[in-house]
């Protein structure tokens, strides 16, 4: 049977082209791979090859014809034994329309159109009342979370720079080598891009890696593996394959380490679908959330803070203490303003709330703890009560976590706001080295107090 | 090019030869069909065809055992067919349909099959190299003797993360075969213009990784080299590099006019070095198959490929709800 040779699409955007030159004539025998014609697209002149073998019966579009639509028949190909006379040289017709995709509204629409309704905040306690407590630093909490999970699951291992013999650049992995051995506590060369990729591959191979970055600043070398390989694979594989891996390390400014070692990546990673993003403040949150992170089937970005490592908090004494993702913690209840923060931002927020209380301003203080998924329900429910909101973070102001919360509040609690939301953030500058300038580049307790006074008009 | 070795017929059976012929032909006909569907607008975006390079993946799959893993770049259709993935599922992914391996959400460059131990289809040049070493890391950690074939091109061989990976793979003696499919062009830039040394496999020497160049237009030479590399890895001796000198007949992707090389260069390769023709001649001259036998294989392959195209056209587009699924897993995926 004769087959039509159609005008091909030769680029992702081509709709029509010029049939510049025929390289075969009627009666020629062609085989797969032979060049039939030259076709000019909007970008280039391309050679068009035969796919099947046969004889060119009729040429339907003369060379030099411009504006030939994709899928228009340009020639007829005959099979063995057919003659051109058998073929009705049909006039060139309009291309048959290909099945067009008509996007219809997906069921889960963005929440923008929904009428505001008071969401239910999950205010259940992180541990049962009456649980015995112990004082622990954030460093000890992170260390014990990893040790517990490594005892529980043999596929959990940690790799990174100086995690083993040096006992951790910040001593988060102290004693792990002694207990678990060199097979499971692995010193890497200083090659973040490479070992992050090896970690992701290992997670596909049946293991549960913890990849420590000496700081998140160095993970910019590895961000392609974190996002393109770890975060997107579950989706790209149609749910076949995921990446159960934890990337962790100190994030944000420490003290006097300059622009390249002081960036807060909270907003960067929080933007990526497919990731979990955690930034704990207290030791209890660090422990409970890291254990959850190690068990989670998804890639987790776990953002710690060097200054917080040495701070002590009360941590529950429990055999297996975990905190679920997507559940904010209300540190103190209040009625006049909602302060939303996370990570080290909580130090400013807590201090500000204490000082404001002395002046009779009652602040409700929310620690987001996980930035993806983000517990916006707790924030919205609080703002519906206080009608005012201030956000606090050390990261840069443009496209910050605070910006996102402000947008959510406009959409879902617009009628409840009595003042514009104010975002207290780091300044829009690279981190300076000089002590006085570094202090100015970060946000501060005074800025938070000032913002609260602005939104409460007091 | 490496000179074609005189083929050792002694240890290759007629069945093996016939299988290589069939597997390579399936890839070629499948890719030609994909090119045709692209021309009809049924396949969109980028589409990188494997035509010309068939002997590389077919030869190495012949050296692989049950349980071995493979991972590659975006020129991945051949690898999927060679490891036994269903042509219908691959073609339907190319057309972005529900019946595709990723239910239409991955496309030409992003398909996976944990069942066949195929770990993608990766679109970032060089990124799959540490990922492949990571798969090998898992096997070593779990204490089995599996091997991971990590394929990449001469272009990717200049990426920094490749050398980070060589270092760690050698340091930790990972059972990974780095397969450099050297088709001589990194998109439009010839190896001469992009790569300081003519023999990329020698770069492993700096890390103590043995390697060799292989004639990638000779499936038997590829299989032989693959056997050697696999044995090396399985014995726990660490990584191995195979630089397989091959040639792609088509452009880098469908929209590449390929003006960086002459038509004569491509024609010469096709006429003098074609890997499928080579096996065809061996089958005929060795008396292993008649012209009719081969025609029967051709017909059978054509039917498989046509059926895959039909399936890929008939399979519906993914349901709109699919937009929102597979972003976050609720339970651990069965990766291993």
From TrEMBL, chain A:
The family database entries (PROSITE patterns) matched by this protein are listed as: BIOTINYL_LIPOYL, LIPOYL
Swiss-Prot/TrEMBL keywords:
Lipoyl, Oxidoreductase, Pyruvate, Thiamine pyrophosphate
**Annotated Low complexity bias:** 99-118
Q: Which cofactor does it need?
A: (R)-lipoate; thiamine diphosphate
- Record keyword DNA-binding present: no
Listed EC numbers: 1.2.4.1
Q: Name one Pfam family in it.
A: Transket_pyr
What are the boundaries of the region Disordered? 83-130
- Return the InterPro entries for the record: 2-oxoA_DH_lipoyl-BS, Biotin_lipoyl, PDHB_mito-type, Single_hybrid_motif, THDP-binding, Transketo_C/PFOR_II, Transketolase-like_Pyr-bd, Transketolase_C
Query: Per its UniProt record, what Gene3D superfamilies does this chain match?
Result: 2.40.50.100, 3.40.50.920, 3.40.50.970
Report the protein's function: The pyruvate dehydrogenase complex catalyzes the overall conversion of pyruvate to acetyl-CoA and CO(2). It contains multiple copies of three enzymatic components: pyruvate dehydrogenase (E1), dihydrolipoamide acetyltransferase (E2) and lipoamide dehydrogenase (E3). The pyruvate dehydrogenase complex catalyzes the overall conversion of pyruvate to acetyl-CoA and CO2.
Instruction: Please report the name of this protein according to its UniProt entry.
Output: Pyruvate dehydrogenase E1 component subunit beta
Organism, per UniProt?
Answer: Roseovarius azorensis
Top-level taxonomy: Bacteria, Pseudomonadati, Pseudomonadota, Alphaproteobacteria, Rhodobacterales
Automatic annotation (TrEMBL), chain B:
Task: Look up the domain of life of the source.
Answer: Bacteria
Q: Which Gene3D superfamilies does the protein's record reference?
A: 3.40.50.970
State the reactions this protein catalyses: N(6)-[(R)-lipoyl]-L-lysyl-[protein] + pyruvate + H(+) = N(6)-[(R)-S(8)-acetyldihydrolipoyl]-L-lysyl-[protein] + CO2
Q: Name one Pfam family in it.
A: E1_dh
Protein EC: 1.2.4.1
Q: Which terms are listed as keywords in the entry?
A: Oxidoreductase, Pyruvate, Thiamine pyrophosphate
- Its GO biological process terms? pyruvate decarboxylation to acetyl-CoA
Q: Fetch the InterPro entries from UniProt.
A: DH_E1, PDH_E1_Alpha_Subunit, Pyrv_DH_E1_asu_subgrp-y, THDP-binding
**CDD domains attached to this UniProt entry:** TPP_E1_PDC_ADC_BCADC (cd02000)
Enzyme class name = oxidoreductase
Cofactor(s) recorded in Swiss-Prot or TrEMBL: thiamine diphosphate
GO molecular function annotation: pyruvate dehydrogenase (acetyl-transferring) activity
**Dehydrogenase E1 component domain boundaries:** 23-320
Per the entry, what this protein does is: The pyruvate dehydrogenase complex catalyzes the overall conversion of pyruvate to acetyl-CoA and CO(2). It contains multiple copies of three enzymatic components: pyruvate dehydrogenase (E1), dihydrolipoamide acetyltransferase (E2) and lipoamide dehydrogenase (E3).
- Please give the subunit comment from the record: Heterodimer of an alpha and a beta chain.
Give the matching NCBIfam families: PDH_E1_alph_y (TIGR03182)
Q: What is this protein called?
A: Pyruvate dehydrogenase E1 component subunit alpha
Q: Which organism is it from?
A: Roseovarius azorensis
Gene symbol of the encoding locus: pdhA
